[in-house]
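Format notes (please read before filing issues)

Several people have asked whether sequences and structure tokens are stored in separate files. They are not. Every record keeps both together, in the order shown below: the sequence lines, then the token lines. Line labels are part of the format and must not be stripped during preprocessing.
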Amino acid sequence: MKSKTNKSGDYDSLPTSESQTQIGKNFSAAINSRELLTPKDNAHTYILELNELKKKEAGEYNPHEYADIEHPTTFFETLIHLLKSSFGTGILAMPLAFSHSGWVLGIIGTAFIGLLCTYCMHMLVKTEYDLCKKKQVPSMTYPATAEAALMEGPRFMAKVAPYSGTISNTFLLLYQLGSCCVYTVFIGQNISNVVNNYYAIDERLIMLMTLLPLIMICFVKNLKFLAPLTIVANVITAISFAIIYYYIFNEPISLEDRNAIGEVKNYPLFFGTVLFALESIGMILPLQNEMKEPEKFITPCGVLNIGMACVTTLYITTGLFGYIAYGDDVDGSISYTINQADIAAQVCKLMLAFAIYTSYSLYMYVSIDIVWRQMLSKRFEESNQKVLWENLCRIFLVVFTFSLAVAIPYIDLFISLVGAFCISALGLAFPAIFDSCFRWRQLTGWKKILVHSKNTIITLFAIFGLVIGTYTSVQDIVKKFAPS
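Then the structure lines:
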């Protein structure tokens, strides 16, 4: 090695001999654990590696600089994925949600839940970043974040930490699979509404025809390759909403006979529907972790704020005017309510079915990640049939969600149940708990009291919504199957 300094003066100020010795030991371990570049590049490699070790010693580790992503997504592509994962069946159920709450409470409630969801997403991403920085790892999954955060908390939470990954994975899996069930019902019913204008075909047979296409799209194995299809689906969704708004504003716009405040017994259904519609909690960390510039995800004008502002505004608009137009006659999806005989309405339903078809793959992407990559793949690590087993896993998950959708084809109640049970925990309660645990030893005085009080209120609100919303949704599903 010719010199300890380079032309740009990387080592203008060398560390003390004690620090040099420690860094040298760390660097020796790094050399032994990796394959270096060619001999002529050894000096340059040493400089780069030693600089990174100096940063780590000084606590300057930046997780984003160490992310190793095979197919990183741009700011725009990530925003498209976030919007697509949010503009699903939930927005089409918003007029029904407003019929449960009344139009005044619907506006206030949706805006409040939208702000709360966005805030909790910020807490989750910030906690994950701080934990990555402390543990010096590039990224963490939701379950890994859960376990690491709880380990930082009080003693009784640290005891729960080893089980938190399994708990988080269970809720995530239920949410993603539940969403896929909702999407399967939606695709089948929209196609059925169109076909039945011309042929009398059983709805379940039409749903069966969608099974093979659903399996095929789930064999696309990374988000980068889904981006072009997602952009097309977003354009189609925009056209479909234009058609829906055309029908909405063709109806007399009057608040007469429209409830400003709905019945209290229906509030849990409103809560569950709005939560399901607004939250994309299962996609947040994967989307950020696959970004080319992940630091732009939670900036003031970042992906998350722009996406959630657009989503919340459009949800309030659709819910309000859809309810004003059709009142209590609105169906579980407003696409079912618009005139079935019109060609424009039929085209709209088919386009929406295709758009939701692409969203199905996004939600199944997370389900496959949990079931295969985190639970099953290690068991087949040395098998020559590993790819075959992975493909069988993909097929099984699609068939499983399809079977549930055929068995319980009530899209509005499915939406409320999944939203109340899964999103109350994943999107509200858990991020608040993670934030409190991670900052447990960092805060003092009034700031500690305020932060933990705030997180406690969010957690209690989420638990209340989970219990009441789940009970109401299950009760209504049971009524559907009860003999009349």
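For reference, the curators noted about this record: Residues 253 and 325 are 6 Å apart (CA to CA). The longest helix spans residues 155-195.
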